[in-house]
Amino acid sequence: MVAATESSIKEMIEKVKVEAGDEEKCMICLEEVEVGFEASQMPFSHILAVLVESGMDVEIWMTRALTEITCELESINDMFAANESSIKEMIERVKVEAGEEDCMICLEELKVSFEASRMPCSHVFHGDCMEKWLKQSHYCPICRFEMPTD
After folding, report:
1. How many CA atoms within 13 Å lie on the side-chain side of 70?
2. pLDDT tens sequence for the chain (150 residues)
3. Is residue 102 part of a domain?
4. Among 60, 76, 92, which residue terminates a domain?
5. Fewer C-beta within 10 Å: the chain N or C terminus?
């Protein structure tokens, strides 16, 4: 990867004035950006290149960014738990058959003959993973199928 020079970074950055309704947090330091502040915008691919070249720990930055995005999505999408009785009625226990399927919650493999849980939308997950997920969200993490709520 070619090092990002100060002049190449300046070329990638677009300056924008934060207007009312656009207030948000800086994705690097997570501090509030206020109305009237002149912020810098840069395409995500350029941001990663600059982070790598600057020596900043990209994993820490990505974790911060994902945490922030998750919090925003939860507030926007009214994320809340699925109804416990609907979980008992609608979630089916199934044996994993041949195929290299992964649990898309923990990203680990669903091993053949393992007893997993299937949502009404047919997506399959580890039982423990699905249980934890549905205590926080009533949506399928893959297709956004909505489970009933209280």
Report:
1. 9
2. 445 566 666 666 777 777 776 656 665 555 777 777 777 676 666 666 666 777 777 777 777 777 777 766 666 556 678 888 888 899 999 999 876 688 888 888 888 888 999 999 999 999 999 999 998 888 898 888 888 887
3. yes
4. 76
5. N
